[in-house]
Every structure is written in C-alpha cells, then in structure tokens.
Design goal:
alpha/beta; ten-stranded mixed beta sheet; 13 helices; 10 strands; globular
C-alpha cells in the first residue's frame, strides 16, 4: 500500500510562512540595561536560524541579570566568515558560525590563509545541522547539480557561509565563476524574491530547516530542491572532518514531498579567550538551564538536546568556562 503524503496548498503554504516568520521574529528582542557593557553576539540575516538563535541565547542570559549582572546585544551580520573576522578583531564577544569556517579560521587555512591561525578562538556549544541547499525554479531546466552551469545562479554575498561553501563545492566540481550565465551575489534575505521574480534560476543556502526564505519561495512560485550528491560530494565528506552526509526532510516545502540528499555542517556558538571564564560559564548555564527557551526559538533547533550540543567532536577547543559547566553537570567526563 502506498504511503500517503500530505503537501500543503498555496493558501496553507502562505499561512505556514507567516507562522514561521512569527517564530523567527525577535519577540521582545533582547535589550539589556543601558548602564552595563554588553556581550556582543553576531548572528546572520533576519530570515535565517542564526538570528533567532542568537536572540534566544541573549534573552535567556538576560533573565538572570539580577544574579550575574551580564547583558548582551544581538547583531544581524553577513554570516559566518564576517563573524569570524569580527571575533578576531574584538568587535564581537560571541557569534554563531559554520563548523567548517570555524575550523579554517582556527587553522589559518583558506579562506583565512592570509591571516595567522586564530588560536584564541574557542567553542561554547554546537547548535543545529545545516545542509547545503540548492533551490531552483521548476521551469529552469535544473534537475541535478550538473545542470547549474550555464544558468543564472545566486551564490551568496561575500563573507557569508553560503558563499564560502558554494566556492568549495565549485572547486570540487571543477567549476569557475565563468561557468554561469548570470552570477548574482545577493544576501540570503533577498534571494527568494529574486528567484520568484525570475531574476535567477537557482539560489543556494547553508542553513537549518525549515527556512523562511525557502518557505516564501515555495509558496510564491514553483520551485524544487535539487539533490547535492555525487562522487565530488562524497569525496568532500570523506576528506573533511567538519562535513557530514545530510538530508533535507520531505514535506517541509510545497512541491517537495520527498527527502533530498546533500552534505552539511553544524552551527557553532563560538567565542574567544578574551571572554572571561565566569562570563562564558554564565552564558552556557543560562542556555542549558532554560533549554526549551532555545529549542522553541526556531523549528530547526527543536531537535537539539544537551547531549548533542556537547558530544560533537569539536575542531576548536572548548572555552574553559563552558568546559567547567559541562563537567559540573556531567555532560563531559
């Protein structure tokens, strides 16, 4: 007997977009007292997972302000690579970054080869999985990854994790920028509209799911998720410790009922050794002792558990303050 699949219609899809955007909105955006220096937290675009996750972390920290006296401020930024640069320069105290770019910054490997290894970078905890995602118009003639050359593709804004990951994939496939008929560098917040306005044939993300931009696109126009698979992808996963095989669940977006294979990274909440041990301890404590406040901030965070956030094999060392908390709670041994 065939399994029945439910696919939301256009009207319901619109309602789902509105619902998710409500979840993503910075409800009571964390604004601490003005007479206290704030911990600056870098995130990403407003329609991704980093921004609501960062706001949830900040709100949880502020709940204990009368006890620890710490305040925080959340900044929407260009994404992982920008965040790492701001962490290095002392413009941020903490930030969410992709695990691959966290690793490369720490090691001083491309795209950070022109800088010394970021040896003061530290990890606080792991967050959600982020599959690399390709979304194409159904009338674009794009059915597989191999169909992208010769098309109009938005590869993301410079400094974003999606752009950097796309460049790694392009290198693995032997592609260059000249292989695309039209090359766009729109930020994540603008590319969904560009896709439905027929300004581009395909857009890419490195993002947790469900994602508001993809929900918007799949509601406003006919789009499909493209499998990201093949020998080049298999080789990337096998040869890099920060990549893993991933799958975008089916049924999240209109017109995409089946799971779609890809590869991915993990969002990492990162800081530096400049953050005092007691402050790092309080940040981690605030999140883990009010855990549902983080999980409910975005559907992509709903599957998190304290164990998965700590059991990851971190490519960058834990901050001593985080490690102290985890050992006290026996999350680390």
């Amino acid at each position: 007997m065939d399994r029945c699949r439910w696919t939301p219609g256009p009207r319901l899809g619109t309602l789902l977009v509105m619902l998710l955007l409500t979840v993503l909105a910075p409800m009571g955006l964390a604004q601490p007292p003005e007479d206290q220096e704030a911990i600056q937290i870098g995130t990403g675009s407003h329609d991704g997972v980093y921004f609501p996750a960062g706001n949830a972390i900040c709100r949880l920290l502020l709940r204990g302000f009368t006890e620890h006296g710490l305040r925080c401020q959340v900044l929407s930024t260009g994404g992982s690579v920008v965040n790492l640069g701001m962490l290095r320069n002392g413009e941020l105290d903490a930030a969410i970054v992709q695990s691959d770019w966290q690793y490369h910054a720490y090691q001083g490997t491309p795209p950070f080869e022109d800088q010394p290894p970021f040896e003061h970078l530290r990890t606080l905890f792991a967050l959600h999985d982020e599959p690399f995602t390709v979304l194409a118009r159904t009338d674009s003639g794009i059915d597989t990854l191999a169909d992208l050359p010769g098309k109009r593709v938005n590869i993301g804004n410079p400094g974003s994790g999606q752009r950097a990951t796309m460049e790694v994939l392009m290198e693995a496939l032997g592609w260059g920028l000249g292989d695309f008929v039209g090359l766009n560098e729109l930020p994540a917040g603008e590319q969904a509209q560009a896709l439905c306005d027929d300004e581009v044939d395909a857009i890419v993300f490195t993002v947790g799911h469900p994602n508001a931009s993809i929900l918007e696109s799949s509601t406003l126009c006919e789009v499909r998720l493209i499998p990201v698979e093949g020998p080049a992808v298999d080789s990337l996963v096998a040869s890099h410790p920060y990549y893993f095989e991933a799958e975008i669940p089916g049924g999240l977006y209109r017109g995409n009922p089946d799971p779609v294979p890809s590869f991915g990274v993990i969002g990492m909440f990162s800081t530096t050794t400049a953050l005092p041990e007691e402050e790092a301890y309080e940040v981690v404590k605030a999140v883990f002792e009010e855990f549902d406040g983080l999980r409910y901030a975005h559907p992509a965070l709903g599957r998190l558990t304290p164990q998965t956030m700590v059991s990851t094999e971190f490519a960058v060392p834990l901050h001593p303050g985080a490690e102290k908390y985890y050992r006290e709670k026996r999350l680390l041994r």
